Amino acid sequence: MKLTVVLALASVAMAAKLPTAQRPVAILRSGQVNPDENGAHSSDFEAENGIVFQFSGSEGVNGGANMIGTFSYPQEDGSLAEVKFVANENGYQPESSLLPVAPAFPHPIPQFVLDQIEFARLEDERKAREEAAAARQ
């Protein structure tokens, strides 16, 4: 009898440690328009858990795909994470309040540094003029 009770308690403890199976997430909306003769295409997706993804695109000038779209998903704190994006010849360009932003330059640039930068620029211009004049002779 004691062995049965111990085994029952052990199996309950082990079952409590096992992760619970998650139920499948229902897809509420899913649409796709395949490329037409101009390469235009789009896709639209929404899941029951709050994930939404939409994009449309077309063939780029250089043969790549140009796309614009958005996606969003709920975060653990209940807020909604949203990202807008453009993807084209200039790369992937996301926009979101979630993305880090570089801090402002920490201090003003001292005048002597600005003077040195200007001096170097003038020296480069003088050297380029001298080289151009030498090449003409």
Can I get a quick summary?
This protein is of the alpha+beta class and 137 residues long.
Question: What this model shows, in words?
Answer:
With 137 residues, this protein is of the alpha+beta class. It is 31% helix and 34% strand. The protein has helices at 2-17, 111-136, and strands spanning 27-33, 41-47, 52-59, 65-74, 80-88, 91-95. The termini are far apart. The model is unreliable at 1-9 (pLDDT under 50).
Question: How would the blueprint of this fold be written?
Answer:
Layout: H1 2-17, E1 27-33, E2 41-47, E3 52-59, E4 65-74, E5 80-88, E6 91-95, H2 111-136
Antiparallel strand pairs: 1-2, 2-3, 3-4, 4-5, 5-6
Count of helices? 2
Please give the alpha-carbon distance between the first and last residues: 111 Å
Shape: elongated
Mean pLDDT: 84
Instruction: State the low-pLDDT regions, or none.
Output: 1-9
**Relative helix content:** 25-40%
The tally of beta strands, per DSSP, is: 6
Q: Which range does the strand content fall in?
A: 25-35%
- The side-by-side strand order for the widest beta sheet comes to 1-2-3-4-5-6
Largest beta-sheet details: 6 strands, antiparallel
Q: What is the gyration radius calculated from CA atoms?
A: 31 Å
The multimeric state of the shown protein is single chain
Order of helix and strand elements from N to C terminus: HEEEEEEH
